[in-house]
Design brief:
Elements: E1 15-19, E2 23-24, E3 30-31, E4 34-41, E5 51-55, E6 82-83, E7 88-89, E8 94-98, H1 130-143, E9 151-155, H2 157-168, E10 176-179, H3 187-201, H4 219-233, H5 236-242, H6 261-274, H7 279-291, H8 302-305, E11 313-318, H9 326-338, E12 343-348, H10 362-378
Parallel strand pairs: 5-8, 5-9, 6-7, 9-10, 10-11, 11-12
Antiparallel strand pairs: 1-4, 2-3, 4-8
Helix pairs in contact: 1-2, 3-4, 3-7, 4-6
Length: about 375
Amino acid sequence: MPELPRDSVGLVTPQTAHFDAPLELACGRTLPSYELVYETYGELNAERSNAVLICHALSGHHHAAGYHSPDDRKPGWWDAHIGPGKSIDTERFFVVSLNNLGGCHGSTGPLSHNPATGRQWGPDFPMMTVTDWVHSQARLADRLGIQRFAAVIGGSLGGMQVLQWSLNYPERVANAAVIAATPKLSAQNIAFNEVARQAIRSDPDFHDGRYAEHDTLPRRGLKLARMVGHITYLSEDAMGSKFGRDLRSDDFNFGYDVEFQVESYLRYQGDTFSNRFDANTYLLMTKALDYFDPAAPHGGDLAAALAPASCPFLVVSFSTDWRFPPSRSRELVDALIRAGKAVSFANIDSPHGHDAFLLPEPRYQAVFAGFMKRVARDLNLEAH
């Protein structure tokens, strides 16, 4: 058996929690029952005070760290930050990571069966919001016996969930880390999401979301959606240094097949994604992004919206992230200060664009590790 890295959480097995209590949703509909798939790393202490919740981004899932088998080529999506001695030190913290409702990695979503019809939910699955996810996550915390999280942490769409946690359940969040996120999407971001959705919905194999009944998948549309999204996740510098204008051959072919290396990369990313992600889930997730705006019920006053929050915040942005730029993080920081909240802010100089929140940037790791050490110190969490 291959030897796993010493700072890995090792082999992990996903777990499933079933909930029979109906969940009322912001869209006005109700899920009669549902399942959440999750993983845990580390050990919950006797006081149940060392739990950390990880909230995932648009295409994320429950597998944040470790390996499912010794033959896995890659660990979980945030393995660089979760494990013994890492920023989220599993010698001190008990980490919970789940796949959100509406997801396509085991939690109840469009791929699940609708108990009312016996058929796959497909496009009939209810529209999700960040608030819905937070309420379902709170029920999972109840199931695990966790009344208060030492920290709730997330990047991108995950950061929006962290913010919502601090508003819906302030007494259950001791600390919050909002990374590469925004208090609401800009018109440009909503536009990118709409282009992606239209790419999927206009695919002839989409069949109004009932592609499973036609024994097909809208791969072309989902591929295009991912290609558009992936461009926005990278910076111009990252694309330039990685690909430049490099050709796959020595000269132009004067055609529409792949000629530039960047074209090859995007097509590969799109093809891979279209084979592992569900199109209806992609539509749901992007709509949840669009809908998120906690300041809206307060006349656009973000400081007023943040009034219920009671925990210290860490807000992190990245210099070349043009999807959720540093200016949007500063907007959140300014509102937190106006609301009288404790907040630390770091803008990390990185060439990697929005994707930087997933990577082991040295200064990012130092800031993040410092925050988590303070969390452990304030809560008197000892290494086990």
